[in-house]
Write a structure and sequence with these properties.
The complex is a heterodimer of chains A (about 280) and B (about 325).
Chain A: H1 2-14, H2 17-45, H3 50-90, H4 92-97, H5 103-137, H6 144-166, H7 171-198, H8 201-213, H9 216-227, H10 230-245, H11 257-279
Chain B: E1 17-26, E2 29-39, E3 44-48, H1 55-63, E4 70-75, E5 78-79, E6 89-92, H2 104-114, H3 122-132, H4 148-160, E7 166-170, H5 178-193, E8 197-202, H6 205-211, E9 214-219, E10 222-228, H7 229-233, E11 237-243, H8 247-252, E12 258-262, E13 265-269, H9 276-285, E14 289-296, H10 300-309
Parallel strand pairs in B: 3-8, 3-9, 6-7, 7-8
Antiparallel strand pairs in B: 1-2, 1-4, 4-5, 9-10, 11-13, 11-14, 12-13
Classes of the chains: A mainly alpha (about 280), B alpha/beta (about 325).
Chain lengths: ~280, ~325
């Protein structure tokens, strides 16, 4: 398993994936950092007070985080979908699985290596963005480590799903299904907020169920919570709160611990399913 | 980390492969229909058949890459799918590819690790395997820059890495030129001399004819003939181009075998190869002028085509085994 994980890391380095991700991160951070700095400077020139500027920057930062969340999810899908499926299609896996290794070793080793790459990317890109924005505008979010941890967790959920689908579907199919499910889960989160607001119980129930079936949107709310200034939450208050909760870029609380535990269990179960699926597949 | 398997001591007794009614279905399609055969240790065994006959399916079943629908088999004394025994097996798949971003040496190091070879001996075994297939001077090339033929040689090196007890070669010469094929034949022979059992899956009959001790011919998932090559090809036939042979001499030649004369072509079938010089001497002493002597058997290709197309009678074949 460790051999396969190390092989996956070496593949990422040899195929220049790490350099590509580093380049994309620097480019994205530079562009968005410049944009946020321009907005903050413009607001100051217009005479806005620092508190308003910080609140404005915090909301822009959440939008930038959403972009990163999307990029991390797509990266996870398109890294993990061909990791097993591509090896099966090309014949690379055939020679390896004839060796005295378990098929689960291949799945878990691939998962481990890709998780290291993806977590490194999510943490590095997230913290770099937050640091650059803090440096340029003076605003730092309340819990940056919580935000990047949930960002990485969201990526790992998609990565694990892509590995499972890749044991049965071709690479492109597995990647495409992940992208669609990620989008659907996000929309379900939006519907859940609206359903709660208008008291539509059936819609709320379906949306809640989808959050447990694919916990990416719930984890996204954790990213938002880590970036949301307490003053915004306090300002929303009990009256505006329910309306604000329908907004996918607002979170008044961290995801409950049961949900975090479920997300960890979800990854473990889906990974075990991936190993079982490959083990029962004819090669 | 090396795989968590301990290498069981090699069991030198018993056949390398024994199958009993091994079958595989994919839905309604029967890929293998009751394969029963035995491959003895140390022999080079040819597994022949037309496309779709079930050859690759059989290899995948024996390697534990696929599960049989019914039947039983043992490989190196262990039941199918035994993970520990796979440490003693080499495999060159028919459709294979190695990581194009790795160097050839690194591919072999990876497989040495996956196979659980002793860490201290790995560098020497990797170098030996690369040298065996003539890639020692290209060990540091990226696999992606290799030609198809070089990749096939690399595949052979991976299969023979660490001198496995049993090696499955699925169409090992399909991408090679004649010189490359010659090299593969000598590699197979060298492996056999070291005691490795070679299971050669091929449709290139001349290759099989030149290196295999025994062969099995499969068609539509069943073994339709098996045995040593001389058994499969039948008794030798002598063809002589002769002129000026007196008619009364022809009857006398009947002592050597069944005689047939067609123009200047004389056929004696069957013939004891040891008696060929005596036969030629008898023709010459009777006044015949010998222009050409061809002592041989039918080709494997003739036999193969006859069996799979029904164009020639197939002799009844007992279940293949050491006595076959």
């Amino acid at each position: 398993m460790i051999t396969i994980a190390a092989l996956t890391l070496r593949e990422a380095a040899r195929r220049r994936l790490l350099w590509l991700l580093a380049g994309l991160t620097i480019g994205s951070v530079a562009l968005t950092g410049w944009g946020v700095e321009r907005l903050a400077t413009l607001a100051r020139e217009q005479g806005a007070d620092e508190l308003s500027i910080w609140i404005g920057v915090s909301q822009v930062l959440i939008l930038v985080a959403f972009m990163f969340s999307f990029v991390v999810a797509m990266t996870a899908a398109f890294l993990a979908a061909p990791a097993i499926a591509g090896d099966l299609e090309s014949g690379v896996a055939l020679a390896m699985l004839a060796r005295p290794i378990r098929r689960a070793d291949l799945v878990v080793g691939r998962w481990l290596g890709l998780s290291v790459v993806l977590t490194g990317y999510a943490v590095a890109s997230g913290l770099l963005e937050i640091a650059v924005v803090a440096l340029l505008t003076g605003y730092a979010p309340p819990q940056p480590l919580v935000a990047v941890a949930f960002l990485a967790a969201q990526g790992i959920v998609i990565l694990t799903l892509a590995l499972l689908l890749g044991t049965r579907l071709p690479s492109v199919g597995a990647g495409a299904v992940c992208v669609v499910l990620f989008g659907l889960a996000w929309m379900a989160g939006v519907f859940a907020g609206i359903a709660r607001l208008f008291d539509i119980e059936i819609l709320a129930a379906v949306a809640r169920a989808s959050r447990w079936l694919l916990p990416t949107d719930g984890l996204w709310r954790g990213v938002v919570y880590g970036l949301e200034p307490p003053i915004v939450i306090a300002g929303a208050g009990p009256t505006v709160g329910p309306i604000a909760e329908a907004n996918p870029f607002y979170a008044s609380a961290a995801p409950p611990i049961e949900f975090v535990v479920w997300s960890v269990a979800w990854v473990a179960v889906v990974l075990a399913l991936a190993a079982w699926s490959l083990d029962h597949r004819e090669l | 980390m090396t795989p968590s398997v301990s290498r069981p001591p090699a069991v030198a007794s018993g056949p390398a492969i024994r199958t009993d009614g091994l079958a595989k279905r994919f839905g309604r399609t029967v890929a293998l229909d009751g394969l029963t055969m035995t491959v003895e240790r140390g022999e080079v065994f040819g597994f022949l058949g037309p496309n779709g006959a079930g050859k690759t399916t059989a290899v995948k079943l024996l390697l534990g890459l696929s599960r049989p629908s019914r039947g039983r088999a043992e490989v190196l004394g262990a039941p199918l799918g035994d993970r520990a025994v796979r440490a003693r097996i080499g495999y060159l798949p028919e459709l294979f590819r190695y990581q194009p971003w790795l160097r050839a040496r690194e591919v072999l190091e990876l497989h040495a690790e996956l196979a659980g070879l002793q860490r201290t001996g790995r560098p020497g075994q990797v170098a030996d395997a690369l040298g065996l297939v003539g890639l020692a001077d290209r060990a540091e090339w990226l696999v992606g820059t290799y030609s198809k033929g070089m990749q096939q040689r690399l595949g052979l090196a991976v299969a023979l890495l660490g001198s496995p007890e049993l090696v499955f070669l699925d169409e090992p010469t399909s991408a090679l030129d004649p010189v490359g094929r010659l090299g593969v034949r000598s590699i197979i022979r060298a492996a056999s001399d070291r005691g490795t059992t070679v299971f050669l899956n091929s449709h290139l009959l001349t290759e099989v004819e030149r290196v295999c001790d025994r062969v099995a011919i499969v068609d539509r998932g069943r073994v339709i003939a098996a045995g040593r090559l001389d058994e499969l090809l039948g008794a030798p036939v002598l063809r002589i181009r002769v002129t000026d042979l007196p008619p009364k001499a022809i009857a006398a030649l009947g002592a050597f075998g069944r005689v047939q004369l067609d123009g200047d072509r004389l056929t004696i079938d069957p013939i004891d190869p040891a008696r060929v010089p005596d036969l030629v001497a008898a023709i010459v002493s009777a006044g015949g002028r010998v222009h050409e002597v061809d002592a041989g058997r039918g080709s494997l290709e003739d036999r193969f085509v006859g069996l799979v197309t029904g164009g020639a009678p197939a002799e009844p074949t007992p279940p293949p085994g050491p006595a076959a």
